[in-house]
Specification:
The protein is mainly α and 55 residues long. The protein is built from two helices and no strands.
């Protein structure tokens, strides 16, 4: 018998109080929040250097 066998087949809970979140909003809450700070600035700096060299 597995550790979660007693709960694995229970029905999915649906709140009567809170409406379900849209798929779009649910996905957005898991999106990274500027995980690498300064990354975009570094890309712009690199782009400027490449433009100067190969312009």
């Amino acid at each position: 018998m597995g550790e979660y066998d007693d709960i694995i087949n229970l029905p999915h809970h649906v709140s009567k109080r809170h409406p379900q979140m849209s798929m779009w909003n649910r996905a957005a809450q898991f999106a990274p929040f500027a995980a690498v700070s300064g990354h975009e600035d570094a890309l712009k700096d690199t782009e400027e250097i490449v433009q100067e060299d190969f312009g």
